[in-house]
Amino acid sequence: MSFPGKGLLKGLAVTMRTMTKRSVTAHYPDALPELPPRSRGVIALIEENCTVCMLCARECPAWCIYIDSHKDTIPATTEGGRDKSRNVLDRFAIDFSICMYCSICVEVCPFDALHWSPEFEYAELDIRELTHEKERLREWMWTVPAPAALDEGAEPAKEITTAQKAAERQGRPTP
Ligand code: SF4
Ligand code: SF4
């Protein structure tokens, strides 16, 4: 049934209901949000794990990963052996002003060199500062949370069983 002022009364009822509820607005930065540990805040790099395979840079849809490298020659260790070559990382940078936080680079890295940190407070006044070079990306690693514990009943990680077998063979205490 409709009567004059019904809409107004309905509106007032909504106002009264919400006025008595507790506010859900968090007063950032005084109150920091409780983010899940695997939040996509910033990408961290373990430089030592990076083999310069370029997969991440090729797959990045925003083309915001910049990698420079050169080849080093490692002399043969045996007489008549062949010299080896290895890639040396000169530059690894991510431009967070165009990154869309899709996580493709982290997913495709075959060597676990890239990880997400939930840290998100790195706004800059100068957009150029949003390109984080490898030294800064390495520093973010300190803010990456430890991986979640394995599910109960899950198989132990391959690295652990391999280390245990090696220790048993050598008569050392198992890790
Ligand atoms: S998260 Fe996505 S857009 Fe950002 S650097 Fe990685 S692949 Fe590129
Ligand atoms: S995919 Fe991983 S190993 Fe390959 S260049 Fe990127 S960070 Fe380095």
From TrEMBL:
[4Fe-4S] cluster 1 binds at residues 50, 53, 56, 109. Residues 166-175 have a biased composition (Basic and acidic residues). Coiled coil: none annotated. Its EC number is 7.1.1.-. It is a peripheral membrane protein. Keywords: 4Fe-4S, Cell membrane, Iron, Iron-sulfur, Membrane, Metal-binding, NAD, Quinone, Repeat, Translocase, Ubiquinone. This is NADH-quinone oxidoreductase subunit I. It comes from Nocardioides jiangsuensis. The lineage of its organism: Bacteria, Bacillati, Actinomycetota, Actinomycetes, Propionibacteriales. The gene is nuoI.
